[in-house]
Design goal:
The structure holds two protein chains of two kinds. Chain A is mainly beta. Chain A is 0% helix and 54% strand. Chain A has strands at residues 5-7, 10-13, 19-24, 31-38, 42-50, 53-56, 65-71, 74-79, 88-95, 104-105, 109-113. In chain A, strand 5 and strand 6 form a beta hairpin. Chain A is globular, with a radius of gyration of 13 Å. Chain A starts with a strand and ends with a strand. Classes of the chains: A mainly beta, B mainly beta. Chain A binds chain B through residues 4, 33, 42-45, 48, 55-56, 58-59, 91, 93, 98-108, and chain B through 32, 34, 36, 42-46, 49, 93, 97-98, 100-106.
Chain lengths: 114, 114
């Protein structure tokens, strides 16, 4: 299994531009999570899906952030418009089952907004 | 949320055992103790989890105090590749919604000297 796949691995964009991060979870996993990691705030959960349905988006910082999961094998996290404070590493993770004892993380997307 | 307390950093010598402590005095009866680690420039990686009894797997051992108010992750022979941030996390798998999710603290940064 290829594990969780994220693209792009690095993204540099200018303030005000739209950014789309992509994630392919492990096949068969029914939970998908988006996290953000910064030096100041550590690793934070932004939103998670169960069977493609968003369950809790209380961690999404503001309306500029949106996430979708159109099918079981693909999810996107969009920031529009982007701001310098959005610079961070964004991780996608997936797990199987309600307990989800093991979350499998992708390699992350390092976003830099100038 | 039940909280965990870990030392900010620890050092070890290569090929020696490492004991990483975690205090969780407010743990509830249904909280599982999870350990994840994050190697440099990578996403977090599941290490081990347990409820009451000590647990062993190919990566590590988890020793849980009888009163469950503390636990210790044991790496039997540290290698340079074990240098990472280790997170101790409490999670109740029977809790629906976001409270059943992983909440990452600051963790312990483990350095391994050759």
């Amino acid at each position: 299994d290829a594990g969780v796949i994220q693209s792009p691995r690095h993204e540099v964009t200018e303030m005000g531009q739209e950014v789309t991060l992509r994630c392919k979870p492990i096949s068969g996993h029914d939970y998908l999570f988006w996290y953000r990691q910064t030096m100041m705030r550590g690793l934070e959960l932004l939103i998670y899906f169960n069977n493609n349905v968003p369950i809790d988006d209380s961690g999404m910082p503001e309306d500029r952030f949106s996430a979708k999961m159109p099918n079981a094998s693909f999810s996107t996290l969009k920031i529009q418009p982007s701001e310098p404070r959005d610079s961070a590493v964004y991780f996608c993770a997936s797990s199987y089952g309600a307990a989800g004892y093991e979350q499998y993380f992708g390699p992350g997307t390092r976003l830099t907004v100038t | 949320d039940a909280k965990t307390t870990q030392p900010n950093s620890m050092e070890s010598n290569e090929e020696e055992p490492v004991h990483l402590p975690c205090n969780h005095s407010t743990i509830s009866g249904t909280d599982y103790i999870h350990w994840y680690r994050q190697l440099p420039s990578q996403g977090p990686e599941y290490v081990i989890h347990g409820l009451t009894s000590n647990v062993n797997n190919r990566m590590a051992s988890l020793a849980i105090a009888e009163d469950r108010k503390s636990s210790t992750l044991i790496l039997h022979r540290a290698t340079l590749r074990d240098a990472a941030v280790y997170y101790c996390i409490l999670r109740d798998p029977d809790y629906g919604g976001s409270q059943g999710n992983l909440i990452f603290g600051k963790g312990t940064k483990l350095s391994v000297k050759p």
